[in-house]
User: What shape does this take?
Amino acid sequence: MAVHITDDALTGGMLMFMRNTTARDWILRYIEMRHDINDPIEVLRIAQTADYIDQNSNVTVTGKLLFEFGMYDGVHKNNQHQFT
Assistant: This one.
């Protein structure tokens, strides 16, 4: 039995990979800034302890939620109008 990979499957897989990579990078930068840590090993340890990233460095469901809510919150804050 042959397996046929369609362009849609490749595109979908690539988009998911890019989204996970973006989420992982954002989570690690968030932890680094939030805790003022410059050690990448410590940042990764905190992300894994908090269950944002698994042992294979894949973003977990909790990490995806943090990324999605964090990105929304950042956009929301940037769009707020300030009255003078």
